[in-house]
Amino acid sequence: MARGTYATINLDALVYNFLQVKHLSPRSKHVAVIKADAYGNGAIPVAKALTPYTNMFAVAFLEEAIALREAGITLPILVLQGPYAYQELENTKTLNLHWVLHTETQLAWFSEYLSHSDIQGHQWVKVDSGMHRLGLPMNEFDDLMRRYPTVMSNKCVIMTHLAAADEDDQTQTNIQINSFLSKVSASDFALSIANSAGAIALPKARQNFNRIGISTYGSTPFCSDRQITLRPVMTLSAPIIAVREIPKGDTVGYGMTWQATKPTTIATVAIGYADGYPRHAQNGTPAVLHNRRISLVGRVSMDMITYDISNVENVKIGDMVELWGNQLPINEIASYVGTIGYELMTRVSKRVPRKYIHAKEKT
Ligand SMILES: Cc1ncc(COP(=O)(O)O)c(C=O)c1O
């Protein structure tokens, strides 16, 4: 008999979210970003579900692309960090890969590769418009175009990445977009700027290709509400494996960090930091049991968490607790633990089985 701890992944919600964002840019093509095992949701089932709706997929590095090909995914795959070595380019044709080239070394490798290959249009050139993480310096763009004419031909896509598209104040983002467009839009290049936040909130960021990640998985990138409804995709749930009454004054868990101020009913739930639930979650972090909010008490341990369930009636061993998902937005838990939905999702560990369902099925 299985432990009963699951991440349930709603594939209908996933497709719904992707289409919501896609429909905002009817003239753009879309890249579904499925790196890091589709942000923890499972790259292969996610890729299969999105194949009819996306133009291509994006992963971070070659091995993630190979795993998709081995699973029979056939759409083009964009490799966001580009080749780490020249030899990786030899997979371009056989695996139908598109590469983000963000250093001059990568431009030189690709130029060399093109000199003995018949492929066309498999290169995206990344320009640093202000994020200062990856990308060629904007002021070297014209010079690089002259020096790498076969790479930076009208067959390539020129891209940049926005540093703060999810912020309410878009001053900096507008500066980034305007400086990028003023540099590249006079040429004949296809362009790509938008991530989820850009595609949702910034019409000027919607160019030939949008690269959509987090919104597909149902987590808004914004701190405040926007005119888009996303449905939760991942619901993390685990069963109660013990229930006990403790008197006023007793403590719960390692380090005795929580003390009962009144007689309290404590439920122990079969999930912990080894499953990806953050250990630093504090007393008071919510979960849901029988449609009611309950509060975490005591430290999260490796395989278990304890909750005060005094406000819930008729609780039995085996009843399921929702850690986040359908009834509790992942971003709410993220704000309790000082992180973002991206990190919570991607950290759900391998020992938590993913159950794939469609919307009408019960989670
Ligand atoms: C270069 C690039 N484009 C697009 C995305 C997708 O961003 P988001 O998940 O915010 O939609 C990412 C994600 O980190 C990225 O690194």
Automatic annotation (TrEMBL):
One of its GO terms (biological process) is D-alanine biosynthetic process. It comes from Agaribacter marinus. It comes from the Bacteria. It catalyses: L-alanine = D-alanine. SMART domains: Ala_racemase_C. Substrate binds at R133, M302. This is Alanine racemase. Keywords: Isomerase, Pyridoxal phosphate. Pfam families: Ala_racemase_C (PF00842), Ala_racemase_N (PF01168). The gene is alr1. The modification N6-(pyridoxal phosphate)lysine is found at K35. GO terms for cellular component: cytosol.
